[in-house]
Amino acid sequence: MTETMRAVLLTDHGDLDKLVYREDVPVPVPGPGEVLIRVGACGLNNTDVNTRTAWYSKGVSDATTGGGFDGAEDDDASWGGAAITFPRIQGADVAGRVEAVSDGADPGLIGKRVLIDTWLRDWDDPMNLDKTGYFGSECDGGYAEFTKADHRNVHVVESDLSDAELATFATSSITAENMLNRANVGAGDVVLIPGASGGVGSALIQLANRRGARTVAMCGADKADQVRAIGPEAVLPRAPEDLKGALRNAIGRDTVTVVADVVGGALWPSLIDAIARGGRYTCAGAIAGPIVEFDLRTFYLRDLTFTGTTIAPPGVFADLAGYIERGEIRPLLAETFPLERLVEAQEAFIAKRHVGNIVVVP
Q: Does one domain contain both 201 and 102?
């Protein structure tokens, strides 16, 4: 075992130049109850970009752009509204093999292929959201040759999928599954999914279909054929001039029971207006912009339920691992990059010309 490794360090909030590739980073040493994992692949997600750019800061009102923001403040620049420490190795979506275990962790894990539950918990108080962190944010993550994790965050996965394919699931699918849980989606629901070509959007299609719901995807025309192959009942334009009319033409009705949204932005009022009386809106992102026009009359006169969705409770990731092992959901691997080209990978991710997930492979 070498004492140093290759890794990409986030050195501060700002533009892509804050990501620095190094070949002399110390290999992490697992503490009590932790395991050391050789990273096979690590998927990209919006949290990486938003944390780097400090987009989470209340001083920022723009859409996610991938650049630094002048109005951001360091003290509320993470997903949890607090400061993070630098340098930081980002990357939450790790697939790899356990290399070593420390005291308190099962030696039987050594050599097993694993995924990491991205949510860090106080295991004496696991339901306390205020004590929850995120892998690659409140601790170092997977943009490296090795990483470490609490053994309770490690899930063995028996699968023929490659490491890169396995690395497409964690953040996207646990976010999507948690959104659907929060909105109580089941058979008979009609779920509208803006941003359906992205990691979370494409996972929402698969996971909602798995529950027996009808899914309606929204995406750019250049991605429609690829999104249609994922299996939604209908595919609509990314920003139709008349959303209710487009729904009526596609599925024979002009409302849906659920909107599962990670986009926000200028289209948001139309999304809310398309929810049927007694319907639900669940949100886990605001890629097109966090500040929206909200008519309270639509909200209360139609008896709508809104849920914000970030932290998945214990057990959701184990459900996800089961779906993967049983082949109930499939990977959507758009492209892979070597670790030393993480900046290029993030540029491709920000450009959003892909369908599915982008992954780096050490």
A: no
How many structural domains are present in the chain? Answer: 2
Query: What span, in angstroms and rounded, lies between the C-alpha atoms of 162 and 333?
Result: 10
Residue 112 to residues 92, 108, 160: CA-CA distances in angstroms?
19, 8, 13
Q: Is 1 exposed, middle or buried (0-12, 13-18, 19+ CB in 10 A)?
A: exposed
Alpha carbon 99 to its chain centroid, in Å, reads 26
Residues linked to residue 26 through DSSP beta bridges, in sequence order: 4
Q: What CA–CA distances, in Å, run from 57 to 42, 75, 214?
A: 26, 8, 36
Please give the helix or strand (H or E) that residue 172 lies within, else none.
helix 170-182
Question: Which tens digits make up the pLDDT trace of 198-257?
Answer: 999 999 999 999 999 999 999 999 999 999 999 999 999 999 999 999 999 999 999 999
* CATH code, 297: 3.40.50.720
Report which of 220, 307, 236 is spatially closest to residue 274, judged by C-alpha positions: 236
**321 belongs to a structural domain:** no
Do 194 and 109 fall into the same domain? no
Q: What is the pLDDT of residue 65?
A: 87
354 in Cβ contact with 334 (< 8 Å): yes
Q: What is the pLDDT of residue 121?
A: 96
Rounded CA-CA distance 213/251 in Å is 13
Residue whose pair of structure tokens reads 């639900």 in the numeric block: 280
Q: Which domain holds residue 76?
A: 4-168+331-361
Residue 19 domain flag = yes
If asked whether residues 127 and 227 sit together in one domain, one would say: no
Dihedral sign, Cα of residue 108, residue 110, residue 114, residue 115: positive
Q: Report yes or no on 324 lying in a domain.
A: no
9, two tokens = 């360090």
**216 shares a domain with 83:** no
- 325 lies in some domain: no
Token pair in block for residue 103? 């005291």
pLDDT tens profile 59-112:
999 998 888 888 888 899 999 999 999 999 999 999 999 999 999 999 999 999
Pairing of strands 214-219, 34-43: unpaired
Is 280:183 a contact under the CB 8 Å cutoff? yes
On whether both 109 and 193 belong to a single domain, the answer is no
Nearest partner of 275 among 187, 194, 176, judged by Cα: 194
